[in-house]
Amino acid sequence: MKRMTFCIVAVLLFTGCGSTSRENSIGTVSSPASLVLDTSSPEVAASHQFTAEIWADNWFALYVNGEKVGEDSVPITTERSFNSETITFSATYPLTLALEVKDYVENDSGLEYIGTDRQQIGDGGVIAQITDVDLGRLVAVTDNSWKAYPVRTAPLNPDCVTSSDPLVDCESRILPVPEQWAAPGFDDSAWPSATTFNASEVGPKDGYDDVVWDSSARFIWGSDLKTDNVVLLRLDAVAASPKL
């Protein structure tokens, strides 16, 4: 597993303290609703250190405030590339979180294992949780508050799955990636909400159980787990005291 680390030390001033906590792979963190920040303090506006735990089928890249901070260390071309990643980064509030997620397909037909007895339409799914390490609290999870914009959808005619020439017979919709789509202030008001899925629908494999997931974290994707091959996901203006 590849860890990408950008470390800082921040001194934080806050009032209030929660009594509940959860134990996960990065230690004990307080409940998201248990801590009230002194927003008048200049230290609160300083950079904080965060940890993102992410599992994706098959690949992801994570952007924070418009900057790429990490990606899946296993190439998308790796067959059955199932793994979780832990990425550490520093950033300032409010956070704009963005994920580019991809399900493996061999070409624009949207199929995998083409020409074999396993030729099929694959499926995707991603789950993530972000913790403010300095505050010791969860600040964001994947759920239907994220926006989702599929930029490659195929096949539009799923019955082509049995075709001997999928590139000819399978139809696809490929859209341009919007400029600055991961940046704060990007207008995603026309994007639909991400669709949530349960674990039985996604079927998470290797690496998923390496993370103790918060109960509020959900698998998300575009509206179609199978035919949405590449999806852009955004969660804008995450504050230091989110309501999770």
Properties at a glance:
single chain, mainly beta, 6-stranded antiparallel sheet, 4-stranded antiparallel sheet, globular, 18 strands, 244 residues, disordered N terminus
Q: Outline the biggest β-sheet.
A: 6 strands, antiparallel
Helix and strand succession? EEEEEEEEEEEEEEHEEHEE
Low-confidence stretches: 1-40
> Which percent bin holds the helix content?
under 10%
- Output the strand order for the largest sheet: 7-6-9-18-14-15
N-to-C CA distance: 29 Å
Task: Give the structural class.
Answer: mainly beta
Quaternary state, please?
single chain
> How many structural units, i.e. domains?
1
The best one-word shape is globular
Calculate the mean pLDDT score and round it: 84
Describe this structure in words.
This protein is mainly β and 244 residues long. It has one domain. It is built from two helices and 18 strands. It has helices at residues 166-169, 199-202, and strands at residues 14-15, 21-24, 27-30, 36-37, 48-57, 59-64, 67-71, 83-91, 95-102, 111-112, 120-121, 125-132, 137-141, 147-153, 173-174, 195-197, 219-221, 228-238. The strands form six sheets. Strands 7-6-9-18-14-15 form a six-stranded antiparallel sheet, with no helix packed on it. A four-stranded antiparallel sheet has the order 8-5-12-13, with no helix packed on it. It has a two-stranded antiparallel ribbon with strand order 1-4. The longest helix has 4 residues, at 166-169. The protein is globular and about 55 Å long. The protein starts with 13 loop residues before the first strand and ends in a 6-residue tail after the last strand. 37% of the residues are buried. Mean pLDDT is 84; it is low at 1-40.
